[in-house]
Amino acid sequence: MKKRIMTGDRPTGKLHLGHYVGSLKDRVALQDEYDQFVMLADVQALTDNFENPQKVRDNIKEVALDYLSVGIDPTKTTIYIQSQIPQTAELTIYFLNLVTLARLERNPTVKEEMKQKGFGSEVPVGFLAYPISQAADILILKANLVPVGEDQRPMVEQTREIARKFNLLYGGDLPAGRQVFPEPEIKVGAVARLVGTDGNSKMSKSLGNTINLSDSEEEVEKKVMGMYTDPKRIHPTDPGTVEGNPVFIYLDAFGTDADQEQVNKFKESYRKGQIGDVEVKKYLVEVLNKFLDPIRARRAEFEKNPELVEEILKEGTKKARGEAEKTMIEVKKAMKLNYFD
Ligand code: ATP
Ligand code: MG
C-alpha cells in the first residue's frame, strides 16, 4: 500500500513563488509515489480572517487553480475543502484535552504570527489553537508525510506529540504499528523559507511581498524592478553582496541548469562592482517569466472550464470525508465512545 501525504494552504490569497519552492514542487514530484491529499484550509484561514468570509471563499477558487496550474494532477492527488469535513472539528475537540496552554504559547510560529497580526492581548482562541486543528487535519487522514515550508516545522512537531499521546492514552493493547495514528514526518522543500521581494525573511500572502504564480509578465517585471537588493550598495560601481540578496536567491531558485553559467558570471561582477542592479534584475525577469509560462498556460486552460474545477473539488472532498469517517470510527472505539455499536 502507498504511504500517504497530507498538506495544504490557506485560501487567503493567490499562491506565490515561496509556496512553489517550499511545498508545491514536492507535491508534484511525489504524487505518483504517494497517496496524496491536498487541503484548501478555509477553516484555518478564518482564524485570522473571520470578519471576511468572502475573501476566503473567493480564494478557494484561486488556490485550486494554482494547484492545477503547477501540475498537481487530480487523477493522482485528492484536492478537498477543509470545512466540508466536519469530522475534523470533532477530532479537534478530543485533541484539545491533550495539549496545554503553555505548550501552545511556546510554539515559535504561533508566537511570530501573533506578533505579525498585532492581536496584542486580544488573541482569538481559535487562532491560538490552530496548531491543534491542524494536527487533526493531518491525523484524521493518517498521513505519513507532510511536505511544507520551514515555518510549519513546529506544527508537524506538535502533531507528532499529539499522535504519540493519543496512542499512549487510548491505544490500549494495540501493538506498535497498529496504533490509531502514525507519527508523520515533515518534508521541507528545496528552499525552506523564500525571502520576500521586500527583503523580509518570508514571502507571505499577508505581507504583500509576493510574486504570484498567476502574475502576468508585466506584473513580474514591475515587482522585480522594484525589488530590494543590497541596501548598502548605492552605485553600480560599489562592491555588492550576493549572499542573502533576494535577487540572487531567486536566480538560484528559479534559474534552470542552462542559466547557471550566466548567474555565476553576474555574481562575480556584482561582488566586484562591475554590474548594476538593473541589469541583473532584467535577467531575473526573463528567468521568472520563462519559469511561469507553462504554469500560466495550464491555468488558462482550467480557467476556461470552471465546471471541471468545481467537480474536482466536489469529488476530492467526498473522498476525503469518507477517509475521515473511517478514522473517526476507530478514534471513538479507542476512546470508548462507541456506545451503540
Ligand atoms: P498567510 O500569510 O495567509 O499565512 P502564507 O503565504 O504564509 O499565507 P500559507 O497558506 O500559510 O501561506 O502556507 C502554505 C504552505 O506554503 C506552508 O507549507 C508554508 O510553509 C509554505 N510557505 C509559505 N510561504 C513560504 C515561503 N516564503 N517559503 C517557503 N515556504 C512557504
Ligand atoms: Mg502562513
Characterise the protein shown here:
The protein is mostly helical. It folds into two domains: 4-195 and 306-334, Rossmann fold; 215-300, Tyrosyl-Transfer RNA Synthetase (Orthogonal Bundle). Helices cover 54% and strands 7% of the residues. It contains 14 helices and five strands. The chain has helices at residues 17-30, 42-46, 53-70, 87-96, 101-106, 108-117, 125-128, 130-140, 153-170, 217-225, 246-254, 260-272, 277-303, 306-334; strands spanning 4-9, 35-40, 77-81, 145-148, 185-188. The strands form two sheets. It has a three-stranded parallel β-sheet. A two-stranded parallel sheet has the order 4-5. β1, α1 (17-30) and β2 (35-40) form a beta-alpha-beta unit. α8 packs across α9 (153-170). The longest helix is centred in the C-terminal third of the chain and has 29 residues, at 306-334. The model has no long low-confidence stretch (mean pLDDT 95). The chain binds adenosine-5'-triphosphate and magnesium ion. Adenosine-5'-triphosphate binds at residues 9-10, 12, 18-19, 22-23, 148-149, 151-152, 193-194, 202-206.
